[in-house]
Amino acid sequence: MMFRTPQEVCALLDENLSRSAVKTRTQGGATLSYIDTYQVIKRLNECFTNLGWDSETVAMVEVPGNTDRNGKQLVAYRAMVRITATVAVDGGGYMKIVKEGTGWGSDKSTLNPHEMASKEAESDALKRAA
Q1: How far is it, in rounded angstroms, from Cα 55 to Cα 98?
Q2: Neighbours of 50 (CB within 10 A)
Q3: Which residue intervals of the chain are DSSP H helices?
Q4: Spatial separation of the C-alpha atoms in residues 6 and 66, rounded to whole Å
Q5: CB of 58 within 8 A of CB of 83?
Q6: How far apart are alpha carbons 101 and 110 in whole angstroms?
Q7: Which of 130, 121, 34 is nearest to 82 (CA)?
Q8: Rg of the chain on CA atoms, in Å
Q9: Which of 17, 100, 111, 117 is deepest in the core (most CB within 10 A)?
Q10: Strands 66-67, 73-88: pairing kind
């Protein structure tokens, strides 16, 4: 398998995302820009190839006692994700790069709230690690 050099990875990371990849949402009276998790995974695959990086959820904790503005109980989770990527270095060797990110997810629905909250926390952590 061919690994990219750090310079090649940086050049790929510096490339702009397409306008269609960037979405917006309103939260707390502000308009926020974001990208979906699959766009992050796509960029990691482009930079490191799909076999040159991996992610691992190293922690997933339910956070009790959270409520929304109306006092309704929320299901909430905090996650930590670790990404490990491999790059080629001078002399034919390889270097591992490890990054971690934490994320938060909550869901007040009655249909699979634990699944949705934990998924949101894991996606949020993956994006931050990347």
Answers
A1: 10
A2: 11
A3: 6-14, 37-48, 113-129
A4: 42
A5: no
A6: 28
A7: 130
A8: 18
A9: 117
A10: antiparallel
